[in-house]
User: What shape does this take?
Amino acid sequence: MRKVVSSPFISLDGVVQSPNEWQFAFDEEMAEALGQALETADTILLGRVTFTEWAGYWPTVTGGEDAGFAKWINETPKYVFSSTLDDVDDWANSTLVEGDLATAIGELKAGEGKDITVAGSPTLVRSLLEQDLLDELVLLIHPVVAGEGRRKLFADDSALKKLELVGARPTSSGVIIATYRPVR
Assistant: This one.
């Protein structure tokens, strides 16, 4: 069965929003970890906010250092979870999912293919974890305090959820890549 995996950049104070504003280094080990994540996934899950932001950007990227990722994300099937969007037709290979999250994820996991990755979408990641639908959470923990005014991965009133550390390693820039699995 396929796994659902999320690999967000996160600050020491739990911020995941706008990593371009607080991520000061991107080293070879991080590139390797993210490259491996892309190689093992062939389906992307997105929430409304990330979809809306990325749909206007990634289809326009055709060159430069982001061209490889742009090609991958533009060509890979994307499932967008939203109760407010009417359609997702402005980004190729995107499907709007309006029904029950657990049912949709169950169908995707039961299908053929590689892993399923969550791109950005902290609200979706929280929902997946709360409903026991997330199989792996790979945090790329940056040695920075991003500060208030930015969205964190988990709200202060999040319910208790036990995770098991299955791997951790520091990178040359001081980022820690920590892989967790929910205790079931």
In short: Residues 28-39 form the longest helix (12 residues). The CA atoms of residues 49 and 108 lie 21 Å apart. The chain is about 25% helix and 25% strand.
